[in-house]
Specification:
The protein has eleven helices and seven strands. It is α/β, with parallel strands linked by helices and 293 residues long.
């Protein structure tokens, strides 16, 4: 069965998917819309004179470009999977860049899947309500996978990495863009540990994986040509937008006399601790990880 046939069959069955709804993403989507008009649920990649520091989405979309540039998917009749797709912002960007590509996203949130599929109408994109640690894709069937700030919700677990390897065709790539620990949790100082715990609580994370441990897991699973890039300084300019975006979101709610939902407060708190964690560069870093099956 070729990649295009796989995509069409999944599109036919997508309406019957029945995974549990994840409250965090169902309730936090409004916050992310304020963060990015393109629904990019991640930080950005800054390139002087190419991206605009004052225009957040130029940096966020550049992160999408960096991921697809490393993924190097076939240009047509190929299927790529977004493991933890949110509202499909990266998928839409990828399909504008590669209109003959087919991209399938998986999310645990029924709300995100429903609303995201509306935004992908008439495009070669599809969102499914599935767990990226246990998908329904056949082994050796996918032409590329990526995970942008999603594997952290599973603690960058061995299972998530192993599942990505299982579904990839030989020679295809996995690309991860995410924050990682540079040391073990028990080695964090008191300040680092506090920021880390508050970050995980605010964003409902299992935890951040240790980048060295993740590298070893990728090797153990069978990935090759593993390339790890520390892009913390490229990401920092978009992280600096956090306090301004947070204040803007709160002011908007106050002016419209709207209540700020409990999950929004948690999300805003998590965003601020992401900024504080980023300042502790001996303990935390943001990386682009590329690995080939």
């Amino acid at each position: 069965m070729n990649s295009y046939t796989i995509f069409e069959k999944l599109k036919e069955k997508s309406s019957t998917t029945n995974e549990k709804i994840i409250k965090f993403y169902d309730e936090a989507t409004e916050d992310y819309e304020f963060w990015s008009k393109d629904f990019n649920m991640h930080f950005g990649y800054y390139i002087p004179f190419k991206t605009n520091f004052l225009k957040r989405d130029t940096m966020l979309n550049q992160m999408n470009d960096q991921v697809f540039d490393r993924l190097q998917p076939p240009k047509q009749n190929a299927v790529v999977v977004d493991l933890g797709c949110g509202m499909g912002g990266t998928i839409r960007h990828g399909l504008r860049k590669y209109p003959l590509l087919h991209i399938i996203g998986v999310s645990l949130s029924n709300f995100q899947v429903t609303e995201g599929n509306k935004r992908l109408k008439n495009m070669n994109g599809l969102l499914l309500e599935e767990n990226f640690c246990d998908t329904t894709f056949a082994s050796n069937s996918i032409d590329g996978t990526y995970a942008i700030e999603s594997f952290c919700h599973a603690g960058h677990s061995f299972d998530a990495l192993k599942e990505a390897h299982r579904i990839l065709k030989p020679g295809s790539r996995l690309v991860i863009a995410d924050a990682f620990l540079k040391k073990e949790e028990n080695e964090l100082c008191i300040g680092d540990e506090y920021c880390y715990n508050q970050l995980c609580k605010g964003w409902s994370l299992d935890g951040l994986g240790n980048i060295n441990t993740v590298h070893k897991h990728l090797e153990r699973i069978g990935f090759k040509n593993i390339h790890i890039e520390d892009i913390s300084f490229r990401v920092a300019p978009s992280v600096l937008h956090v306090p301004f975006a947070t204040i803007g979101f709160i002011l908007k709610k106050i002016l419209k006399k709207q209540e700020i939902q409990p999950q929004s407060w948690k999300n805003l708190k998590g965003s601020l601790f992401a900024l504080l964690s980023g300042l502790h560069m001996k303990s935390f870093g943001y990386y682009l990880v590329t690995a080939e099956k």
